[in-house]
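Re: duplicated header lines in exported structure tokens

Our pipeline writes sequence and tokens for each protein into one text file. With two proteins the header for the second block appears twice in some exports. Here is an export where it did not happen, for reference. First protein block:
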Amino acid sequence: MAWTETLTETRNRLRTLYKTIPHVTKEFGAMSKAVKEQGVLDFKTKEFVALGIAVAIRCEACIALHVEALVKAGATRDEIADVLGMTLQMGGGPATMYAGKALECYDELTAEA
């Protein structure tokens, strides 16, 4: 799987959705911004939580978006792997399959940098 293609396709779908229901997506965007900018946890920590949830619920588009955010935030492969380890502990077998995808995504996105 090409994770850069997943990111492009995801963004295209989101643009269509945002144009279709702007009154809803605008508010969701505001909540997303508020949760990332406020509170006691830093942005990278919050993205680690989001990645763990994305793996646990098996959302490939979410994995791609949150790994990309973590790469931009300076996350290391070891940090990603540590988060994935905790996700495996909480999510069992299905999380194991998607944790591999998340690590593959990280490797692809950092290889291009």
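Second protein block, exported in the same file:
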Amino acid sequence: MKIKIEIDENLTEDEIVIHCKSLNEDIFSIQKKITDAVGSRQQMAVTKGETEFYLTLEDILFFETVGNAVAVHTAEQIYQTKLRLYELEEILPGSFMRVSKSTIMNIGRIQSIHKNITGASEVEFVGSPKKVFVSRSYFKPFMSKLEEKRLSK
């Protein structure tokens, strides 16, 4: 495999192109790692009242459904998005994961996990008193994702 970097000062936005003979697991893995690395610096438009804000994805702790709306939680604030959780799942990078029917969490911001074998496990975040519960049915994939993330560093 060759890796080549070309500098073009005429570009208005950085672009990564992968030329490959065929799609295989290595190519998918490279694409995912690039998407995850770039994704955490991407911004998302959210609202609070009549004001629109632009948050970097790494500042978002979790998304949760509240009635008919989706709340966007940072360490200190709560915003809204018009996107539904299933839409967010499709566009968010690999550092986000659904952990219950009503919650998608940023696993890169986890401080601690209080495991509960018979019920939902509680997750605390770095720099915030907010907590999220990981339901039993999502717990095994959640722990696998954390292990995968830890091993890839």
